[in-house]
Design brief:
The complex is a heterodimer of chains A (106) and B (378).
Chain A: H1 3-14, H2 18-37, E1 41-44, E2 48-55, E3 58-61, E4 68-71, E5 74-81, H3 83-91, H4 93-105
Antiparallel strand pairs in A: 1-2, 2-5, 3-4
Helix pairs in contact in A: 1-2
Chain B: E1 4-5, H1 7-18, H2 22-41, E2 46-48, E3 52-59, E4 62-65, E5 72-75, E6 78-85, H3 87-93, E7 103-104, H4 124-130, H5 154-158, H6 161-165, H7 168-185, H8 188-193, H9 196-216, H10 222-249, H11 253-262, H12 269-287, E8 298-301, H13 308-316, H14 322-328, E9 344-347, H15 360-376
Antiparallel strand pairs in B: 2-3, 3-6, 4-5, 8-9
Helix pairs in contact in B: 1-2, 9-11, 9-12, 10-12, 13-14
The chains are: A alpha+beta (106), B mainly alpha (378).
């Protein structure tokens, strides 16, 4: 589902204008980004947790030049699906299919 | 920091940020994530502009060993939910570290030169300034899998390992030393020219200085007062010297010196002016908090283990103030991370820039200055 469809669906389901949906989505990105910068994780019930993780600095090789570089630390946003969501995916058709494929293979 | 924000809390934050009703935000979030979950269940991926993409990633079946029984078993293939943050979100989250850039590591560095630093999971916002000494900007393409543990991490040393280690005590101990230098510089002229009387006078100064040195640690305004004292001491020294010269021409050296010593009014017309000023200044001197090392304009040399941050910590007591030194020496410095060892820099007195290290607003301003400096080399 792309961005446009999502906004349309949201505005229809919630009965709010597309502009409102857009501004709310922007607000969501901003608030999540800001809490992420503080290393605060945000839990969405029955969906999952957005967890910022700090990656330590490290020394790595530049693939092209072969030079050693010190890569600075950074914070990345990770998402951990909740057990509920995992379960839903597992029990969904696509989840069933992937398990079937394994049994077929054996 | 490292808190878990619950859903209602997050709704409240979003409501404030967007200026919308809480109710509306709550409904919106619930609906949004419901839709995403539904789409994921259908096997669809969801892309939200500016936020990121949710999609299912297939995990191949793989063999594994049961840890308790030791039997080999198979983990069936499955899908897992993956979220790839958009560039915008990634940048927002990484904002505390955006000032960094990957820096080349010199091959000839040994482990000894490196200090194991990094204030591990510091609050992100604090971590930035803490490691200010480093680079700017976004990530540089680097192979992910490489991680040479043994490699010296030059840049680390630049981080405030030393400043952090420096305790309150260190500062206190280092003070008298530096004071000694200052004292020796200031009164040199009187010492050269004048006889024992002035010598005594100077002795009194030292005592005053010492007495106040104790106090100074307690006073936040010590830096300012200290600078004033430095000026006063310098002025006094100059006056003594001048008075001496003027008077020697008149052959009244001895008398003047005695007068100074007992701090009484001067008989000689020409000298009385200068002398009373001198008396005044010395009176101020005794009350003032003494010179701090940070208030002297001194020279320092960059080396592989001494950086602008190290100097800032040493001279100003706060490594975050390194941009001041940088600005003072801007003409001879290039990128703040690539200063050649051996470069001699002037460490200006803080008061020259009107910075009070005890004032968070000032420090913040200097930090921003630092970012601005890095910005020039972007």
């Amino acid at each position: 589902m792309d961005n446009k469809t999502l906004i349309d669906t949201l505005s229809k389901n919630l009965d709010i204008s597309r502009d409102t949906v857009t501004s709310l989505l922007e607000g969501l990105t901003k608030t999540l980004g800001e809490s992420g910068a503080e290393l605060d994780s945000v839990a969405i019930p029955s969906f999952g947790t957005f967890e910022p993780r700090k990656r330590m600095e490290r020394v790595a090789l530049h693939p092209a030049s072969g030079k050693r570089l010190l890569v600075p630390p950074k914070v990345v946003m990770t998402f951990r699906p909740s057990p509920v969501l995992k379960q839903r995916i597992k029990e969904s058709e696509i989840g069933e299919r992937s398990r079937d494929k394994v049994t077929d293979g054996e | 920091m490292e808190n878990k924000i619950s859903f209602p809390q997050f709704v409240a934050i979003l409501a404030i940020a967007t200026g919308k009703q809480k109710k509306q935000c709550e409904d919106f979030l619930k609906e949004l994530f419901r839709i995403i979950a539904d789409e994921l269940e259908k096997g669809e991926s969801v892309r939200i502009k500016g936020f990121g993409t949710f999609k299912l990633v297939e995990v191949e079946a793989r063999r594994s060993v049961d840890v308790t029984t030791g039997e080999s078993n198979e983990i069936p293939g499955h899908y897992k939910v993956s979220f790839i943050p958009s560039k915008e979100l990634a940048a927002l989250v990484n904002s505390p570290f955006e000032a960094f850039e990957a820096v080349e590591v010199a091959d000839d560095l040994t482990m000894d030169e490196l200090v194991e630093p990094e204030p591990e999971e510091e609050s992100a916002s604090e971590a930035v300034p803490a490691s200010e000494g480093n680079g700017v900007a976004e990530e540089v393409p680097v192979s992910e899998e490489t991680s040479c543990e043994e490699v010296p991490e030059m840049e680390k040393a630049e981080e405030p390992a030393e400043p952090e280690a420096a305790t309150e005590d260190d500062q206190i101990y280092s003070l008298p030393d530096e004071k000694e230098e200052i004292r020796e510089e200031q009164p040199i002229e009187p010492e050269v020219n004048v006889t024992g009387a002035v010598e005594d006078d100077r002795e009194a100064y030292r005592d005053d200085d010492r007495g106040c040195a104790m106090k100074s640690h307690k006073f936040g305004w010590g830096f300012f007062a200290g600078f004033m004292t430095a000026i006063v001491v310098a002025a006094a020294a100059l006056l003594v010297w001048l008075t001496f010269f003027i008077n020697r021409e008149e052959g009244e050296v001895a008398e003047i010196i005695t007068v100074e010593e007992i701090d009484s009014p001067v008989e000689e017309g020409e000298v009385s002016n200068a002398d009373s000023t001198f008396a005044d200044t010395s009176a101020v001197d005794t009350q003032d908090v003494p010179t701090r090392p940070s208030d002297e304009k001194v020279y320092d040399t960059i080396s592989t283990t001494r950086f602008l941050t190290t100097m800032a910590k040493e001279h100003y007591g706060n490594f975050n103030l390194w941009p001041i030194i940088y600005e003072e020496n801007q003409a001879i410095l290039g990128h703040p991370d690539r200063i050649k060892p051996g470069t001699q820099v002037v460490v200006p007195p803080l008061s020259k820039y009107g910075i009070d290290p005890k004032n968070p607003a000032d420090v913040k301003r200097v930090k921003e200055k630092g970012l601005e400096i890095y910005g020039r080399y972007r």
